[in-house]
Structure prediction request, 490 residues.
Amino acid sequence: MITSIIIYSLVKLYLVLNIYQQSHYQFKLYLKHFIYNFIFYDLFPCIVLILGMLQNEFIVVLICSIYICLFSIFYLIARIRLKFTKRILRVIFLSLIYLGIGFIPYVGIYLLLFLEFTLLPVLLLERGVSYLLNRPYIRKTKEKLEKYHGNKIAITGSFGKTSTKVLLNQALGLFYSSIATPKSYNTELGISKFINTIPDLNVYENIVLEFGASHKKDISKLKEIGAPDVCFVTGIGYMHVETFGSIEAIIQEKMSLLDGCRTAVLNYDCEYIRNYPIDFNIHIISYGLNYGTYQARNISNQEFDFYKDDILLAHFKTNLVGRHQLLNLTGVLAYVYELGCDLSVLERGVLSFVTEKNRLEVKKMSNYILLDDSFNSNYQGFIEALNILKNHPNKRVLLTPGMVELGKYKKELFSSLIEYIVNSTDIVILIGFYQTNDLYRKLKSYNKEVYLVRNFMEGYRLFLTLAEVYKDSMLLIENDVPDLYRVGLI
Prediction:
């Protein structure tokens, strides 16, 4: 019996740490997951605890064995696997010491069944240890950026920041030496990891940094590491509204990046940015498709005219997909134009520009077209992807787990999203029975052809079956909700 409980706890430890990592080591999200999933994780362990006290070892072993199988299935269908970083290895080490030496002998082995709550003291301790270990590492980054003589550019926003960073680095690379943070390295540690791998920053004339903010004061912490000379705010929306509390708090946080910069490049198509009062001296470069000094006009597929006020500056052809990517590019072009860069060089260079993978990426498959937007997680990007799907002449299929973190604005945005999905798709495949339940019922009320599946691979296999019938269809893979938001195996 003891052996069964120990094996159970070791398998569960993997899942617990995976959720902890997906929640970015934040207690609020971590606890929310396990409280919402209490029945899945802990209902039968409660029975085990009671039966264990009655010395019914067979039932204890049986239930532990069933849970080991369930957790193994959870592992197999998980979209995100645990990364054994130094931090996770440190948690494992502390957990084994805490459980093996201090906890089990004095409290009892049955509380291993509730490992997600049993480990809370360890997670608290590890947070303190990580803070002490990371401070010198972050301080080194700050010192290196203080000695840097080039141009520090910071990009933030609720959406579009990673794509804008990639495009800007490519545009600057046509005229200057430039480097940018990779992937979504947009936290204190992510930026520090990047900066500390570069022996001499001053070989680059520009450093492009992505600033992520999911909580209040995140921007101020990042500015303490390296105060930027130029800032981009690419857009403001409802991402992370659950942690911020309101859209007003998000606006204030994102726009706080401007304070201390000499130049701000702002997306004026976003009314929150356009109407934000700026009460200090800073050079504003505004851009948009409908508002701003610099605009992309006469958009046709992947081409557009680039205007400053009413003066035509250039005509650009690109390989970028989606109006929102052309919007991002417009901001980049506005900035490099004001630097005095040759537009004729940009006209040729833009043809080779690419964005991050899995961000509205078009892939031509054997008998269908794949529109991969799985790395997107924001409402505006979802709508833009649906607009592209809408114009496909053949069967249009959406595969999605929906949206999360919309907070108190969920009902309002949900209604709008339903309308877009109804008008843009023929078939909808929803991933996750729990998280998409409301979406499923609403789409069925519109007599939409909807399927519910448990995980991505099951949904993708279903589409491949449909694609055999509907030739030249288009599949939009939209959003990738982490397993953090999964309830049990559904």
Q: What stands out?
A: The longest helix spans residues 120-146. The CA atoms of residues 293 and 310 lie 9 Å apart. The first strand starts at residue 151 and ends at 156. The radius of gyration is 25 Å.
